[in-house]
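Fill in residues.
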């Protein structure tokens, strides 16, 4: 299970020692202090691997500029040395220094990265998007000028392999000195799947415009991308047990908003998997809320889709009709 911010903070403060922890806590608000110390109080023993993970993440964020080094470049190293000893601190610092240039991009703010990439060739942008997490890539593609989005998306969709020479060129574009490891195979990609995942995280208007642009150039390719995408209406293709699993993880707020524009068949499927009392409460909440912004509805639907995608990837639910798979 992924750690939340408070748990990470608790592990970090436990590692750096009482004096440093006290200096950090004194600048936080009481509510935050309470949440962090609650996690610290529940710790029975320290998981070294978790501590190392948190410290590595902290150093990466410092290195990327996301966390300002207000006390100088050696401040974090001093904290690590105090908490873990010199040998372990050096080991953590070495782990961070080996991070490849492209891996370091995950710590850069999407808007900052998009403002940098906008001056690059669409092919370079497309290759970089292929190497990022779908959610970060979606934020970048939405921040790009509309006139190049379609071109970039088309190039992502048609990417099957990134040669090592292209990876080297990207290194130069990013002005990084680290070695990415030389081989003769490059990286292989199913471009249609990559762009489908990116578009799943984009707003509906961006998704539609990008697909329309691709369709104008290559209609079969656009159809292939749509087959791999998961949209809110696709929840109607999940069986009852799957719907129940999805509903366990979504908030009533998101469900109330998301059903505002849902099809009748999807509403009935969801209602069927709720108790009569819960359905009555949900319908009353929907009526009481009145008119809502379309953007709020789409955001709520996107939140639910993310949960469904996660469960689908974990193999906990099956969504009929996605991709080329058949269900028997």
């Amino acid at each position: 299970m992924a750690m939340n911010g408070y748990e990470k903070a608790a592990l970090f403060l436990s590692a750096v020692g009482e004096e440093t922890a006290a200096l950090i806590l004194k600048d936080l608000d009481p509510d935050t202090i309470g949440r962090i110390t609650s996690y610290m109080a529940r710790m029975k023993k320290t998981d070294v691997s978790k501590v190392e993970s948190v410290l590595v993440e902290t150093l990466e964020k410092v290195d990327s500029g996301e966390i300002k080094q207000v006390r100088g470049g050696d401040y974090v190293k001093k904290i690590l040395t105090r908490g873990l000893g010199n040998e372990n601190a050096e080991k953590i610092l070495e782990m961070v220094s080996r991070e490849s240039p492209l891996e370091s991009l995950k710590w850069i703010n999407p808007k900052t990265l998009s403002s940098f990439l906008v001056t690059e060739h669409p092919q370079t942008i497309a290759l970089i998007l292929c190497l990022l997490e779908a959610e970060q890539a979606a934020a970048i593609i939405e921040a790009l000028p509309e006139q190049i989005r379609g071109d970039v998306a088309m190039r992502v969709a048609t990417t099957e392999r990134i040669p090592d020479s292209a990876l080297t060129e990207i290194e130069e574009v990013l002005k990084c000195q680290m070695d990415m490891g030389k081989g003769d195979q490059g990286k292989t990609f199913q471009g249609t799947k990559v762009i489908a995942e990116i578009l799943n995280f984009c707003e509906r208007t961006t998704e539609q415009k990008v697909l329309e642009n691709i369709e104008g150039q290559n209609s079969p390719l656009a159809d292939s991308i749509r087959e791999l995408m998961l949209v809110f209406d696709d929840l109607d293709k999940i069986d009852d047990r799957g719907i129940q699993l999805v509903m366990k993880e979504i908030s009533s707020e998101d469900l109330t908003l998301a059903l505002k524009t849902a099809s009748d068949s999807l509403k009935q499927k969801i209602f069927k998997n709720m108790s009569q009392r819960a359905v009555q409460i949900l319908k009353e909440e929907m009526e009481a809320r009145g008119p809502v912004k379309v953007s709020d509805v789409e955001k709520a639907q996107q939140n639910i889709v993310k949960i469904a995608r996660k469960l689908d990837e974990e193999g906990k639910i099956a969504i009929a009709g996605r991709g080329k798979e058949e269900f028997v």
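The longest strand covers residues 161-162.
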